[in-house]
Amino acid sequence: MHLWRVGLDVEDTVAVALEASLDPDEIARSRRFRLSRERRRFVVGHGILRRILGAYLDRAPATLCFSRGPHGKPALEAPSAPDRLEFSVSRSGNLALYAVARGRHVGVDVERVRPDFNWRPIAARYQTSAQVARIAALPPDTQLVAFFGWWTRSEAYVKACGEGLGAGEARLRAEPDGQWSIVAVDAGPGFAAALAVDGRDVRVEQFLEAGAQPATGEAIPESSPRETGRTHRRRTAARHGR
Fold it and tell me: Between 165 and 214, whose confidence is greater?
């Protein structure tokens, strides 16, 4: 189970090269953004996804084709197989996370923890009364982080199940069954993130994407995604449940 952490604010030459790998639909979608910064991040995010997946499949990024499930989850257009390549993507601000697994459903979510965010209306809509009470009972200065921890774990689980927020609303209030491993992951200062994987005792290897600058400002070794032995990585043992 691999998790890639990528900063999306890259140099112009990198953005242009990544845009060249996108298909016409991705280009059209990028042009719907009113802000040039958001359009650029969309382009970079999708281009890096193609680069990462192309490395696993030993294919040129521009040759990859994608489809969408009933609730909008993207997937590679490829024959079904036991070792099929599954992925999930989440972006918040200038940071993107890419989860990649073989033969396992996977979901990832990252959120920027905004100090002025009013979490209570969202909690009242999506959490059970017991879940709300657990967070409300915490010291005030820890409630916001606790809420985002719950939110990212729940969103990752819903995405792994292939459901959007509306379709998977009931899952937000339910505990995952024993087949799922859900783990909080380090997305850097100011962010909360979580990963959900179909399976038990999953080991997560976390990488910094080569050639891009992560949101935390750490330097990244210059290597291709194939050369994972030389990229910056850390390992995390996934836990069960939420």
Answer: 165
